[in-house]
Amino acid sequence: MNVSRLSLLISQAEIALPETGRIAVYRARPDSDFSALTVERTQFANSFRPFHDRLAAAGFHTVAEIAGEFALSLVEITRSKTETLGLIAKALAATSVGGLVFVDGAKTDGIESALKHCRSLLPIEGSFAKSHGKLFWMTRPNMLPAELDEWIKQSDFRANAAGFITAPGMFSPDKIDTGSALLAAHFDDKLRGRVADLGAGWGWLAAQTLALESVSQIDLYEAEATALTAARLNLTDPRAHFFWTDVAAMPAGAEYDQVIANPPFHQGRAAEPAIGIDFIGKAADILKPKGQFWLVANRQLPYEAALQICFGHVKPLQETPHFKIYLASKPRVGSARKAAQDRAISGR
């Protein structure tokens, strides 16, 4: 864990934090250095379940969404400018008059853009650049600029072009993802019984699944709480059930007839195939012996080996210049999966 810009700023006696009052951290990341803050009076917010759980496991008071009034706030920006501006506006509204609001982030995530937008509305008390990023801060004025209400409004839930409720910062909020559309085109009455949607997002794939009378139930598993809230708004069918969870942390158990997935393949800027590989393993863990796994993946991601290890039969359904669609069956668990893995390693 690198020393944070805030810690460096305080260690250089450039600024002092309030000795009393609550502190809020918006979109707190588990790899951040919070040693400059008094942890006992700090509320750490992250609605992404893996990060939320890691923060909680580290002993921090962790919530999905900030609530209340605070003496000081820190916003860790996201890659979505609209989401970041909404968080800054919420932080200013939740901070007591005269309290400091810090905004921190990498250049590649848009900290300069955030600074430019804030400077257009409020005086910037100072800034501190270090390690390819920047921290800047403002004092919460007695009267907040009216433009901040628009920042919050733009970051809130709204209908996209397809009529589904989404919000900035979610995966593909403005339109139906091409990969998901390709996968759904293969759904037919073979997709039946009890279904799990891993990484369900705002619910478009689940909506296509619920169009089939052969489906008796669908359980949506999603790590981002705001996306799951959108899915609840989009799906009123009583066959749909919703779970805020880290797919990798789901317990094993043969419960489902079908699993569908369009797995995320990054949490930062770099591709992380391990996320999709975890989804493949989890699908095999939760399928019944005769269950099927429907998967769409970006063409360049190396999922074939994991599919062959976790399933006895893997059928490519479609390949485009950008995507691959698979239907896998005969899930392997326990010793059967271990044996398949050993064979793959030995090349037999």
List keywords for this structure.
single chain, 348 residues, alpha/beta, Rossmann fold, 2 domains, seven-stranded mixed beta sheet, elongated
What does this molecule look like?
This protein is an alpha/beta fold and 348 residues long. It has two domains: 5-153, Vaccinia Virus protein VP39 (Rossmann fold); 158-346, 3-Layer(aba) Sandwich (Rossmann fold). Helices cover 30% and strands 29% of the residues. It has eleven helices and 16 strands. It has helices at 5-11, 49-57, 81-94, 111-119, 147-155, 178-184, 204-210, 225-234, 273-286, 304-310, 334-346, and strands spanning 23-26, 42-45, 62-63, 70-76, 95-106, 126-130, 133-139, 158-159, 165-166, 193-198, 215-222, 240-244, 256-261, 287-298, 311-319, 323-331. A seven-stranded mixed sheet has the order 3-2-1-4-5-7-6, with helices on both faces. Strands 12-11-10-13-14-16-15 form a seven-stranded mixed sheet. Strands 8-9 form a two-stranded antiparallel sheet. The chain is elongated. The two termini are 42 Å apart. The model has no long low-confidence stretch (mean pLDDT 94).
